[in-house]
Amino acid sequence: MRYSSYRLAVYNLLIGMCRGSPGLPRTIRQMGYRDRWIAGTALGSSGAAADPVLVLASTEYRHSVFVQVFSGKRVDLADLDRYSKVSAVHLREETPLTQDQTELYSVAVFGLEEHRESLRDGIAESRIRPTLLLRTREGLVIDANPFPKVGLANAFRPVLALDWDSSPLGWIPYDHGSHPAEIAQAIIPRVVARATGGKQRLEIAEICAEHPAWSVSTASARRKMRTRVTRVLATAAEHEFSDFFTVRDGALRFSELAREAVRLPGSPTLKRMQRHQGALLNRLRNSLGA
């Protein structure tokens, strides 16, 4: 399935390019850029602005790019202006970024082509000069304020050609704002696998802790993510997976039927669980609520 979130689509695309995912341009990886996560609190942020921040950092280019994604018509000036108060020393002391990676740093705003004019106006009001990149049908293009590193800027000229429909899905499969179907698609296979060997109980917090950005998420973001994951598992337990597990007191309790199914690969029960996973995804995709 495709992401309901443009933010997740951008995150997975950038991470995929840094890690050399098949079918994606390799230019950024060849420049030494690698994905890093830092806590929003390390930038002096609080509230929603304290969500984890994706950074593309290159020791070779001595440069880091802080990623900001806006799917609507407006940018959040507070999100952008916090970078005006950040120094290289602060980044080295408060984040995993090294001295080489913070010799030069910049901010990239990713938006949609249909909001070009309003996004341009928004970044013009900011205290910083972020690079504006727009999603087009052909890929990604720099629309304003090119990157200070010419090689990186040239990677997007005239356009960084991409097939959005085949971009990677798995690096960041969901977050605390994801649609329930995205969450289910990521966690149900893991839940089924965890029943291997007769495991009787699985804490929901353990499932959430496997999320790549969990360690740098705020307590508020963790609560939101845990709540959404719990809701998905609860509705699965009430409907498609009622024979296989229950959800109570922040944990899953597996039935003997579920444990036997996983211990016997190819069993009719395991195939039934896989069919039920498809039914759950279809139901959630067709639901109105996120």
Description:
By secondary structure, the chain is of the alpha+beta class. It has 2 domains: 161 residues; 106 residues. The chain is 38% helix and 18% strand. Strands 1-2-3-4-5-6-7 form a 7-stranded mixed β-sheet, with helices on both faces. It has a 3-stranded antiparallel β-sheet with strand order 8-10-9. Helix 10 packs across helix 11. The mean pLDDT is 88.
Query: Count of DSSP helices?
Result: 11
Number of domains: 2
Q: State the distance separating the first and last CA atoms.
A: 15 Å
| Share of residues in helices | 25-40%
Largest sheet, in brief, is:
7 strands, mixed
Q: Note the quaternary state here.
A: single chain
In round numbers, the mean pLDDT is 88
Strand tally is 10
Q: Low-confidence parts lasting 5 or more residues at pLDDT below 50?
A: none
In percent terms, what proportion of residues is strand? 15-25%
C-alpha Rg (nearest Å): 21 Å
How is the largest sheet built, in terms of strand order?
1-2-3-4-5-6-7
Q: Brief description of this entry?
A:
The chain has 290 residues and is of the alpha+beta class. The chain has helices at residues 6-19, 27-30, 77-81, 88-94, 116-124, 150-154, 180-194, 204-209, 219-238, 256-263, 268-285, and strands at 33-38, 53-58, 63-69, 104-112, 131-135, 139-144, 160-161, 201-203, 245-248, 251-254. The longest helix is centred in the last third of the chain and has 20 residues, at 219-238.
